[in-house]
Amino acid sequence: MAAKKKILRKHRVLVLMHTDLIPPDDIKGLSEHQFLELMSEYDVLLGVRMVGHEGGRLGVVEELAPVRRAFYEF
To answer: pTM for the whole thing?
Structure first.
């Protein structure tokens, strides 16, 4: 009997990160040092997108109001 393939629903994932660590859409042109600073955040966004979800990003420091706004807008 063939195993049934489970189809996952596409989700919208808002990734929170420090405002200084928001990676650009295109990492070409970044120095190795610049990329290493942003690598974790970039990898999380890339992973979300690679499994078929929509990944948004939001820079946060201390305030929660931007998170609430982004939640409703995204």
So the answer is: 0.76
